[in-house]
Design goal:
Layout: E1 14-21, H1 28-39, E2 43-50, E3 67-70, H2 76-84, H3 94-107, H4 112-129, E4 133-137, H5 141-153, E5 157-161, H6 164-167, H7 173-182, E6 185-188, H8 191-200, E7 209-211, E8 233-238, H9 247-259, E9 264-269, H10 275-284, E10 291-295, H11 299-307, E11 311-314, H12 329-336, E12 341-344, H13 349-353, E13 358-361, H14 366-381, H15 389-397, H16 400-417
Parallel strand pairs: 1-2, 1-4, 2-3, 4-5, 5-6, 6-7, 8-9, 8-11, 9-10, 11-12, 12-13
Helix pairs in contact: 1-16, 2-4, 3-5, 4-5, 9-14, 12-15
Length: 419
Amino acid sequence: MPNQISSEPDSSIHVAYLLKMFPRLSETFILNEVLELERQGAKIDVFSLMAPGDGRFHGNLSQLKLAVRCVPREKPESLWSKIWNLEPGLVPPLEQWETAVEFIRRNRFPRDLDMLLRALLIGAQAKSLGVQHFHAHFATISTRMAALVNLLYQIPFSFTCHAKDIFRETVDRRLFKELVDLSTFAITVSDFNRNYIIEKTPDVDPDKIIRLYNGINLDFFEPSIREPETDPVHMISVGRLVPKKGFDHLLQALSILQNKEVKFKATIVGDGEEEAKLQEMSHRLQLDQCVHFTGGLSIEEVRKHCAESAMMVLACVPDADGNMDALPTVLLEALALDLPIVTTTLTGCPEIVGEDAGLLVEPANPQALADAIERITLKIKNGELVKGTARNRAQRLFDLSTNVSTLRGHFERSISKNC
């Protein structure tokens, strides 16, 4: 992807995002966030540790003014050559090298030399560009790299942690605490997450852990003026086809409904490792006539399918390694589109649905899921749902402009503190 140079004047803050891969079709929340920061006048750069994977991007990617700077792994001699060519003022003092090396050794990072050399190049570029703050998403390699850049160049950083970087049994709690200690602040996307982090991370500073919901562009996700299909009721489920999304439980629930002669049509949007298995399961359960798999789609296509649906269903379950969904973006999109939601009580889902925007069931319970879908189906058919209920909740809690403005305020305070 070519670098894009903005003709806009310098803004009040200059933030660089440090990400494992950008852009990424499944991480719409990051794209939404940087787009809104640009709309609010921040100057943004992105450092991506990997080149984009499969070439499929959301259409609104073209709205970005920022430059995407890819810093992939290379042979050490190639990275050293680039470091030798840096201007003397861009090379950190030896004692800062030593601190960074000790951080790597203490935490036994794989590919340690590669991490150190790439952190040097990222920090040097950032310093020459005038970057005032780094922000990373996921408390994994991107945040570790941001911490290294901080140790080498003293550029403050923060990070947002989501799900796999919090809940997996393999999460190194001591390292997580150290990343929080080194950061200016750490964002997480639900109250459930924040409480979990504080409970599971000994001696972590709770004042540094900030709950800030991901936001949705409410102008982009406007409710359809057309009435959704209700004969039969059309439901949609969107997500990567991986175990934690619970699509196998959804198919079992749909089979229960079919056996009860409940009429429905279901669209499953997404791709992933379980695609073939789920399609075979759907065929075995004789759901071919009422369940349609679309594969992975852009956000524009997802919006179109959602706007034609009458409800959103997401059957989130815990993964075998403890990983769980934290605050599923598709449920926020459903709220904005004023769709009633059926989902599980896992993690942040109750914070999305509340008491009036849908129904919650225990995870991994197809019968309960089927019952909830049937209840919402009857409410739709009987005209019992109050228009605007879900949309109003999205406006109160998940407005992208409001939530990104809050994030920008945290960046500004970090920058002013480190001036």
